[in-house]
Amino acid sequence: VTPVGSAHEVRPAYLEIRQVEPETYDVLWKVPAASEELRLEIEIRFPAETHELGEPRGLFVDGTYLERRRIRLDGGLAARTIHIDGLAATQVDVLARVDRGGGVVQTTRITPDQPEFKVEPTPTLWRVSRTYLVLGVGHILLGPDHLLFVLGLLLIVPGPWTLLKTVTAFTVAHSLTLAVATLGYASAPAEPLNASIALSILFLGPEVVRFQNGETSFTLRHPWVVAFSFGLLHGFGFASGLNTLGMPAGEIPFALLCFNLGVEIGQVGFVMLILLLERSFRVLEISWPRVMRALPAYAVGSLGAYWFFQRMSVMIGAWK
């Protein structure tokens, strides 16, 4: 089955294992799904000594397949390995959380390259923070629409001071809505949100053309205003990377902090890469044909338009 994702990313799956008695655990398994006929075919494989206590209970809710079960494992889970069958054939990560009580909590990111993890006897805070940090970096680097919006901003910024203001405005804005949405104070429907994010990219296409032609507009004079305004939308998009996981309320602030730091690291890395490329072209005195110079502007506008109409069709289809 084809991996199922949102309009702008492949959503992670989520595995929560909570100890309720010695050697007995409740399991929550959340898998992306487009419908009851189309869900991501990945399954948990516990150690061979695991006993199912009753039948697993599953249902489909808001684009997700939820499954709950209770298991018993002689000797407990400590130092045991859990596999995710079928994960290697996908592009999806799994965020696994193991709570053995008494404050012993392990959070691990499982990837298609390494579709298994070992339950640590004494998990460290660094491992937990690294998991959410890497999840944040991956969220922005695997979200082409977010990166294309940042690229569009870079193409209309004339100098370092304006660049600093613009990137800072975008960072502040998406950090605000990321926090508000993740903490549960506000939300945005997925289909209109994804269409609006695509519209923000489409909006920048003509502005890049104006900038290259030496024209001006409110956006070109005050790019930080546009960056802040649309950054509020992108923050809701970033929040989807955490909200779909259904984490315990007590872990959300710490996870939010680490995830947002990861997003910023990925964003700064992308900005630095673009600036280094631009400087390299100037130092090497590369002369681009007129068509090539116009390519970035039309790439931003064309992809923004394509994503916008694609996501609008998804939204209209959901209303029928």
Task: Chart the SSEs and their pairings.
Elements: E1 13-21, E2 24-35, E3 38-39, E4 43-45, E5 50-52, E6 57-61, E7 64-73, E8 81-85, E9 94-99, E10 105-110, E11 116-118, H1 125-141, H2 144-155, H3 160-182, H4 190-212, H5 218-221, H6 223-243, H7 252-283, H8 290-319
Query: Which structural class do you get from the secondary structure elements?
Result: alpha+beta
Number of helices: 8
Query: What number is the mean pLDDT?
Result: 86
Distance between the termini: 25 Å
- Oligomerization category of the chains in this entry: single chain
Q: Note the overall shape.
A: elongated
Order of helices and strands: EEEEEEEEEEEHHHHHHHH
Report the portion of residues in β strands: 15-25%
Radius of gyration: 22 Å
Q: Tell me about the largest β-sheet.
A: 8 strands, mixed
The counted number of beta strands is: 11
| Helix percentage range | 40-55%
Low-confidence stretches: 1-9
What are the key terms here?
single chain, eight-stranded mixed β-sheet, about 20% strand, elongated, disordered N terminus
What does this structure look like?
The chain is α+β, with helices and mostly antiparallel strands and 320 residues long. 51% of the residues lie in helices and 20% in strands. It is built from eight helices and eleven strands. The strands form two sheets. Strands 1, 2, 3, 5, 6, 7, 9 and 10 form an eight-stranded mixed β-sheet that branches. It is elongated. The two termini are 25 Å apart. The N terminus is likely disordered.
